[in-house]
Amino acid sequence: AATARRQEGATAMTMQRFYPIGTPGRPWNDDDRAAWLGSRQIQRSYRDEVLGKLDRLRASFEIEQYGALSIDPARYPLFAVTCRSRNPASPWALITGGVHGYETSGVQGALAFLATRAAVYAERFNLLVAPCVSPWGYEVINRWNPRAIDPNRSFVANSPSEEAAALMSLIVAHDVPFLVHMDLHETTDSDEDEFSPALAARDGKPRVTGIIPDGFYTVGDTENPQPEFQGAIIAGVEKVTHIALPDQNGEIIGSKVTQHGVINYPFRELCLCAGVTTARFTSTTEVYPDSPKVTDEDCNNAQIAATCAALDFALAHGS
Hints:
Layout: H1 2-14, H2 30-38, H3 46-55, E1 61-68, E2 77-83, E3 92-97, H4 104-116, H5 118-121, E4 126-130, H6 135-140, H7 162-174, E5 178-186, H8 190-203, E6 217-221, H9 227-237, E7 251-252, E8 255-256, E9 262-265, E10 281-287, H10 296-317
């Protein structure tokens, strides 16, 4: 134990500081996490930008509250949207946004899909849409929850993330077989500017830098890749925005490109939201909002196009 402490101390002394919180080379303690939380500031309104838009959907859809965040239950209620009438013969589709609250088009794209296209698909699918899984993260524009935990690495039993736990409880309560799950995300410049160094600091590890891809891509499941499904999503999105190209190693964010704009992750091994159901067709979308080639509207439209392409493919090939 003494040797381990000496080694840890030597690592802390030699590792260069790259993040303002914590001691280099040492995982964060409770004081470090408290300092991190205290440094977060509210930058936008969940009530105005999300709840207000949900209220306008009540005439067409059923809105159900499935929980609230303990940091402020009145400010951060959790809502899901379902069809008013459910057809036992129709397949179920799950759409999740804002698992990482800072990824804006994941939230706004899901809301825009509900406002513009969902009614058409509600005639052929039973929809369950959770547009903002992490509302505190949405307001402070952060990847983590208030405990500096990544909800999208926390979809496990007895989850340390109440955001993930609440969504899993919602899915269990519905007790239906999903055919499709679309989990809407973004890859932003802040992934390298803020969250990569924050993660390394939190875990007491050296920082490893990466390259942010310019363009849209999808992440399929290593154990259930469904390449034709992923390709259909790319083809749909390519009509509204550009697709990310691989780097010189043939990779996107460190993973080999399996086809144009597609990489794969082991969803369940990494405890990702996209692995939370047994759906046959699953995908994590990744929009790049910091590209000079796109606007916020383009990013939202890319999420809509991805979702529609996924649902269309599932209808054609799901039997």
